[in-house]
Design a protein that fits this description.
The chain has two domains: 41 residues; 215 residues, Domain of unknown function DUF4159 (Rossmann fold). Helix 4 crosses helix 5. The protein has seven helices and seven strands; from the N terminus they run αβααββαβαβββαα. It has a seven-stranded mixed sheet.
Length: 261
């Protein structure tokens, strides 16, 4: 076989690999879009205005950043909508709060966020706020809004979240919440309940918060844990019932605290 033939075959193989890679990326992007559309479509159930609705914060990330999650959808959508639906059922049952069974997806880029007093935000290791999102997030929290931040872990992710928060509140920092804080006692006494991470159990959960100038708690942060994972899979017989119940107590306390403080 001549040198020219070898070169031709080599070039052809390179082209084929490039075509295959491009095709994979295109298919990945299409599938990613379909997953996102399914998530949004599930949010189209009509909401009753006078009932409590837990909002889910959407934010933009490059699709290649999250396709490695195995098709779970963009990071902001993890555990949705099942986690919201299951928590709302429990919340309605134990508190008699009148709730919308479905959540509502909203972005800090949209002023609609101000309609919802409590919002859930996850996978903040991927959070990359625009200037408008940072401005609205600040306004939302200063006006009395409350954030439940969940489902992230590791030093890289907490450092990214802290960097994003500095854009929002340069004058404030996250602090670890003492177990005597009212949020751990306002409905259930969960001061001694410490549900382990549902996976990656080598991580040690921490519960952080950020308060405004009047010491009103504006957010609770489940670092190194994924409380909503328990909510999502609570109907799965393989999910330990004791740990699931503990996770629900956290969710109930978070909502009750935010609505009463």
């Amino acid at each position: 076989m001549s040198e020219g033939t070898v070169r031709t075959l080599g070039d052809r193989n390179v082209r084929q690999r490039k075509i295959w890679l491009l095709g994979s990326l295109v298919l990945g992007a299409v599938a990613a879009s379909l997953v996102t559309l399914r998530v949004v479509a599930q949010d189209e159930a009509p909401l009753v205005k006078h009932k409590f609705t837990l909002a889910r914060i959407r934010y933009t990330t490059p699709s290649l950043n999250w396709w490695a999650f195995g098709g779970q959808g963009p990071p902001w959508s993890h555990d949705y909508p099942a986690a919201h639906q299951h928590l709302m059922k429990i919340l309605a049952e134990v508190t008699k709060l009148d709730v919308n069974g479905e959540g509502h997806i909203v972005s800090f880029d949209d002023d609609e966020v101000f309609k919802y007093p409590i919002a859930y935000l996850c996978e903040v290791g991927f959070l990359d706020l625009s200037e408008k999102e940072a401005h609205n997030m600040r306004e939302y929290l200063l006006r009395g809004g409350f954030l439940i931040v969940d489902d992230f872990r590791g030093e890289r992710e907490i450092e990214n979240f802290k960097a994003q928060l500095k854009m929002v509140f340069p004058e404030h920092s996250l602090e670890e919440l003492p177990r005597t804080h009212e949020i751990f006692k306002c409905f259930y006494d969960i001061s001694n309940l410490l549900p382990p991470p549902p996976y990656a159990r080598s991580f040690i959960p921490q519960y952080l918060g950020m308060s405004d100038d009047k010491q009103r708690l504006m957010m609770v942060v489940d670092y190194n844990n994924d409380i909503s994972e328990y909510w999502e899979w609570s109907n799965d017989p393989f999910m330990p019932i004791e740990e699931t119940n503990e996770a629900y107590k956290y969710g109930v306390n978070y909502v009750v605290y935010a609505l009463t403080h």
